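quick one
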Amino acid sequence: MTKPIVNEDLCIGCGTCESLCPNVFKMENGKSHVVVEECGDCDCQETVDSCPVSAISLEA
Ligand code: SF4
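structure w/ iron/sulfur cluster:
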């Protein structure tokens, strides 16, 4: 299982990750935060690939 991690220094708060995996990512104070240990619906790779600033990584 993989846990997504957001680099808040890179995140520009576009909201794409929250749109794609709303149970994992929540926008707060203009940044995305990971709120669960793992997605359950997918491996979040699409979300990782969709982040415009490559702020999301996956931890093994
Ligand atoms: S997709 Fe990337 S830049 Fe956009 S809110 Fe999520 S982590 Fe931040």
